[in-house]
Amino acid sequence: MKKSVRLTLLIALVAVFIFNCQEEQSKSINKIERKNFGEVKRGAKKTPEQRALYHEARELHEFYRQVNPATGKVPISEKRQEFRQAEDSKFRSSNPMARRIQTNYINRGPTNFGGRTRSIVIDRTDLSGNTILAAAVSGGVFKTINGGSNWIKVSSNDAIHNATSLAQDPRAGFENIWYYGTGEGNGNSAALDGAFYLGQGIWKSIDGGNTWRQIPNTNSEFTAYDSAFDITYKLEVHPITGDLYAALGGQIKRFNGTSWTTEIENSSVFTNRHTDVVITSNGRVYAGFSGTNDAATRGVWTSPTGNGSWTRFNEPSFKPAGRLVLALAPSNQDKLYTIFDNGKNSDCEKVAIVGAELWMWDQSTSIFTNYSSKLPDEPGCSDGNDPFTSQKGYDLEISVKPDNENFIVIGGSNAYKIENITTQSMFTRIGGYKNADNYEIYNLGTKVEHHPDIHDLVFSITNPSVLFSGTDGGVHKTTDVTRSIVGWENLNNNYQTYQYYHVAIDPLPGSDIVIGGTQDNGTKAGGTLVGTPDLTTQFGIYGGDGVAVGISRDQPCLPVFLGSQFGDFMRVCDDYISIAPEGSTSNFVTYFHLDPDNNNALYYAGKNTLYKTIDASNVTTLTWTNMGTTSVFTHADNFEIFSTTRGTYNPNSSYLLMGGDQGHIYKLNDPQNAASLSLATDITPPTATTGFPSIVTGLAIHPTNKDIVLATYSNYGTNSIFLTTNATSAQPTWALVERNLSAHSIRSAAIAEVKGETIYFVGTARGLYSTADPVNLDWIREAPELIGQALVSSLAYRPSDNHLLIGTHGNGMYEAVLEGTLTVDDKALSVAIKLYPNPVEDSFNIRMPLGNAGKGTYAIINNLGQIVLRGKLEEKPIHVSSLQSGTYFIKLYVDDKTAVKQFIKK
């Protein structure tokens, strides 16, 4: 059997698990077998088969973290309960015992990079064209009123973030009405998990997209894929009736404001049945059905009014095999362009084939014109890049210049244009990859990189030569698409939509350097100490799928450790040095652990093999110590997470914890000197679920007490949070401390100690939580208005100055500054300090008790808990003119005391 067939079968089998996620009543166990991807050559050119393999592995990475190991399915009842628990936990902060440590949250971006964007709509009521809304697949809906100079998230943090389509009511007097749809039909980084793949219905705004409410009868919230509203491909509003048209899975539905009518529906199930819809200014509606629909519906349909009277107008040679998308020519709406996946896969080593067809339908003549021969096939060849490919419909887009019915732009892996489709021979490249020969990112014209994987191409409403793009890299704009060399502007300014797998913080106290591995956007880093202008700007270090990361202070050059999928592993100092252990293999998200307090020690997860070095700054591919495999414990967990004791290394008390994908936790004493993994002991909690998949996602060791460990598991239907207070014993005893998070998928863990007080953190599939006592006190949701219910995939704590770095999968990165409660002396200092003037317009002064004047530092905090300004008290007066109007707090640090005062910025 060919590999491509095996992959197709496997994807289909896994899809069955998701699409039939009904509540299981029986107690039978459907065992999920770990997919073994074998050895993948590092750095080799990716064939189409490898690209499919990467896509599958990325999906399974998330699926394995959620599936209930006892049923083989994602339990819908627990996902519903998880949502309710998250909502309830947001209000538990009123418990005075729950918050013994003050926590201030700082946004760490990246605000200059964006994630996957499926839809862009320019507000027709703003004649300047500067008001734009964008839908980010795992980030939500964002709005800008200044042309992309700054974005604000307008969808709720408590809603599922997978926004995929936007539409504005075009009727005069009704332009305040907007809609967005949810659920991505293919390509999401978590497509098999039921978290981002399935949507949450369709949402409506009546105030220009500032606030949103779910349309009640589209509520497909947390169910299996049993409703067409689970996935929205396209939304359009009728310019005459105001009816909303939704292109859903295998269906076109119409909403008159009260009820839904199915206009066209295929006769088979609606899973993976791509559709599209466009509407002319006089109300004619066109609908497209992909080649994966049944033969009776696939192709293009039209209705003069959109209310019945539908006809299909395919011709014999018009045969879409996969996804099909439509575009009208604004200057001549009799012309309808359609581009579709033709089911053909290019292989540069065998035969190069264009993976799509392009046709134009003329309603005035009822004639199709085939323009497929003009699709890009440039000199050179690189699979997934050239010839034109949509990666099986994952990225497919077409748009027509508003003032020229023959000027067409299309998107697949790359963006292309043809200025006159009737006379020119072939489209030319304007974005994505730089050229046809390799995978260097396009940066021509303005030197700004334009990300591949094109999902939306939208012309400006004020200037027909201005084009916006929505890609896997966010939102970009070109000011003149007619130029011979098209350059782009980056509009990802506070468009915070990045998906992190792992994050790390510089171990040096006081440093603001951070790093993170992201889904399909490589490894990014930031911090003013490495040259960024602020705390939210980041820069790219490495490509591919970002994975585990680490920052070392073991050498003057500040080495960082990073990698990409399937075992690619680098040390970056003066240059890039490959250091993956010779002969090792890895999971898709390559995992390793740099001891944050003893940077000489580095541990690498070679699936179920442990590799170590105690010379991380000089290790080569050949100098690792192979410590053996988990098979010595009669089960062969692949390693998923490591943790080391904090502080200076001590052979008598330091240890390494290792968590696997079969639920086991191992402890290895004196790991820097241990010769073999066989010396480790299995300390798995007795009530933890074992057997694949049961993923250990967090192992947090108390920074000063090695006996205290918090362990977390991610799979639904399993016990998920455990605490031990005697971890150094031969057989630790564990307490189950889920409490009010019993239904949550737990993804990460950390323990902090501030001024003798301990606080426990867990990152979940629905936000970040903390408690001062997990045995007796419920968990409360942290930063509900900032982090919200984003999936918190990674936590990295620096005990030396109490900073906690938070990586989310879809909402970027945040940093928490933990402070102890005010002492009696601190409170007295707060009372004695005076601010004037207050309210303040531009600047204010601070009057302090005698002996304290001019000493210490300050931080200004907004009402979301974000630190927005810092400075020294000797710098007088304190200028706040850059702040927006509102209520703020200034926190002063004087000697070993702190003080907090409130002020109002006019």
Automatic annotation (TrEMBL):
<dbReference type="InterPro" id="IPR026444">
    <property type="entry name" value="Secre_tail"/>
</dbReference>
<protein>
    <submittedName>
        <fullName>Putative secreted protein (Por secretion system target)</fullName>
    </submittedName>
</protein>
<feature type="domain" description="Secretion system C-terminal sorting">
    <location>
        <begin position="835"/>
        <end position="904"/>
    </location>
</feature>
<dbReference type="InterPro" id="IPR036278">
    <property type="entry name" value="Sialidase_sf"/>
</dbReference>
<keyword id="KW-0732">Signal</keyword>
<dbReference type="Pfam" id="PF18962">
    <property type="entry name" value="Por_Secre_tail"/>
</dbReference>
<dbReference type="InterPro" id="IPR015943">
    <property type="entry name" value="WD40/YVTN_repeat-like_dom_sf"/>
</dbReference>
